[in-house]
Write a structure and sequence with these properties.
The chain is of the alpha+beta class. It is built from 14 helices and 12 strands. Helix 2 packs across helix 7.
Length: 386
């Protein structure tokens, strides 16, 4: 394994942390990028992109990042809010009339972005082909009743977030979320990140290495009670956790070109750490003359909308408008930071007070019941260099 890339003087500790992820924390292939005040100070990659073929991770290797995608989707919605095309406190039915089925006519847009709509899971499972084709999950969400009274609690909308917010974007802009992101975010900034990967780029994608959901009983017994409850929820098919994360009746092959090419705006964004870091840098300041959202919009986006025990994830969470916010145990750099992580370990965020934008992507998925040492080490090293 060799690490390649660039590290500005004074940020050598970040390279050390990145190398430690391979030497001690099990990384196979990964990339990391850090912007400070809009400038790249760290841009690293290394390892193996595809174990079966021994294809190395290169500068232009792309990675599917699961829920780290949600920040890109939220950014698109917030751009429409800033333009006055969406009112956060208006009923969703004002923009999407069919959404009102099942007594949902009074749910405001704000609830969709903060996981408070009560639509964390579909009322029935769908096929993978229905998921990839978009319309069926949207139709189910239009008709079904909320799983709890909207606004009274929050629960992570693992997959439905993307269809709820994505359909809202489509109704208002006339464009799918993948097209809107490409035209309004990626193209102006020159980002190599897609919600719906074009076929000509598929050969550059790294192959995911899935985790196995198992735990030694002795390890389980050492966990705090709330984490034991989380483990139990993961293996209980009737829990909100399982219902939210497992919406298809058949397994999804996340390494297939067909899945990467679809638009699943909650979780199949594909791109580079460099692109994610640059996007976040443009959310908190100008990057080569481009800023995505105003300071006032971003202040609103990183203001807590709901915080406390999450009905889906069991543990406490803190939600802004589409972004995860700091809470005990969350891997963000400071109290003003905002971002989103993805299943298996990817993480991207910005901290306006520190002036940093941070992105880490990897192909070996892991579950940690507590901080992921890979991102924890990179955050600690970053802060030590500022």
């Amino acid at each position: 394994m060799g690490v390649e890339g660039h590290v500005a003087a004074g940020f050598e500790a970040v390279r050390d942390a990145f190398e430690t992820n391979f030497d001690e924390h099990g990384d196979v292939g990964a990339a990391f990028c850090l912007h400070v005040d809009g400038e790249v100070v760290v841009d690293l990659w290394g390892g193996t992109a595809d174990v079966a073929t021994e294809r190395p991770w290169r500068e232009d290797t792309l990675q599917l990042v699961f829920s780290t995608t949600k920040a890109a989707t939220a950014t698109c919605a917030l751009m429409l809010v800033e333009r006055g095309e969406i009112d956060l406190d208006a009923p969703v039915v004002e923009y999407w009339p069919e959404f009102g089925g099942g007594g949902k006519e009074n749910i405001p847009v704000r609830y969709l972005l903060s996981h408070r709509s009560g639509l964390a899971a579909l009322e029935r499972k769908i096929s993978v082909q229905e998921l990839l084709a978009w319309r069926e999950p949207v139709a189910i969400l239009e008709a079904q009743k909320p799983l709890w009274e909207p606004g009274t609690a929050h629960g992570y909308h693992a997959w439905t977030f993307g269809h709820l917010v994505g359909e809202l974007i489509r109704r208002v802009s006339g464009r799918s979320v993948g097209r809107f992101f490409a035209e309004e975010v990626a193209d102006p900034l020159g980002l190599e990140f897609w919600i719906g990967l074009p076929g000509e780029h598929d050969a550059r994608a790294a192959s995911l290495i899935p985790f196995e959901l198992s735990m030694d009983p002795g390890v389980f017994a050492t966990l705090p009670e709330i984490l034991q409850e989380l483990v139990r929820a993961q293996v209980d098919p009737d829990s909100m956790f399982s219902r939210s994360l497992n919406i298809t009746s058949d397994p999804i092959d996340w390494n297939s070109a067909e899945v990467r090419a679809a638009e699943i705006p909650s979780g199949n964004g594909v791109g580079t750490a460099r692109a994610l870091s640059r996007m976040y840098a443009a959310l908190i300041g100008e990057v080569d003359g481009t800023r995505l959202l105003s300071p006032s919009t971003m202040d609103a986006a990183r203001t807590t909308q709901t915080m406390g025990r999450d009905l889906t994830l069991v543990v406490p969470t803190n939600w802004g408008l589409g972004f995860q916010l700091p809470i005990v145990g969350a891997l963000l750099s400071g109290t003003g930071a905002f971002g989103h992580g993805g299943m298996g370990g990817s993480l991207a965020f910005a901290d306006p007070e520190a002036g940093i934008a941070f992105a880490y992507v990897m192909n070996r998925m892991m579950i940690h019941y507590g901080p992921d040492p890979r991102t924890a080490g990179l955050i600690e090293a970053t802060l030590s260099c500022l």
